[in-house]
Amino acid sequence: MTWSPTDHPRNIIAILRGITPEEAEATVEVIVAAGITQIEVPLNSPSALKSIGLMKKRIGDAAGIGAGTVLSARDVQDTRDAGGEFVVSPNADKDVILATKQAGMMSCPGVFTPTECFEAIKHGADILKVFPAFIMGPEGIKAMKAVLPKDKPVYAVGGVGAADFPAYIGAGCAGFGLGSNIFKPGNTVQDTAANAREMVEAYDALEGLRAN
């Protein structure tokens, strides 16, 4: 299946950079239980493809599992073969976007300029990942959103936490990619569960703002 952002109650992608296969199943369970149903395993994590497969087998259709730091068409195919359903990249690589769409997966390339945004859209990107968001800031995103298609979701990723949600939502962001605010190497499962719940509560508190 193609995992669409509209399939999820919250536009949050949990980025599990550095996770190991030994941690994968317990970690994905607590994150999904907290209410986050888009999980990214960056490919520069230890045995990332194995973690993707374990997570998908454990969680089934309760969540979408994808790969991050995807840099080549080969990475896309490996992700698909492992059971991944979406692809996230730090950059807007035409070959990666095209390979992702040809494989029937959701494409979420990293962008930072209007040129990159429109090139990514032209090749089929589903979500525009502004990265690193903390450098552009809400005002920069707001300015860029003014020229982008209204129906193209923009996620803020990189240096964004719960306290920043109102400003980025106000700037027109549809969602967030959250890394160390949810998981970082050395976390216990309990740490990750508590972090995920905190992010969900902060996101849900903005329902009125997001509706506008």
Tell me what the structure shows.
This protein is 44% helix and 16% strand. The chain contains nine helices and nine strands. The protein has a single domain, classed as Alpha-Beta Barrel (TIM Barrel), CATH 3.20.20. It is globular. Helix 1 (21-34) packs parallel to helix 8 and helix 3 runs parallel beside helix 4. A nine-stranded parallel sheet has the order 5-4-3-2-1-9-8-7-6. It has 212 residues and is of the alpha/beta class.
Task: Set down the secondary structure blueprint.
Layout: E1 12-15, H1 21-34, E2 38-42, H2 48-59, E3 64-68, H3 73-82, E4 86-88, H4 94-102, E5 106-108, E6 110-111, H5 114-122, E7 128-130, H6 133-145, E8 154-157, H7 165-170, E9 175-178, H8 189-204, H9 207-211
Parallel strand pairs: 1-2, 1-9, 2-3, 3-4, 4-5, 6-7, 7-8, 8-9
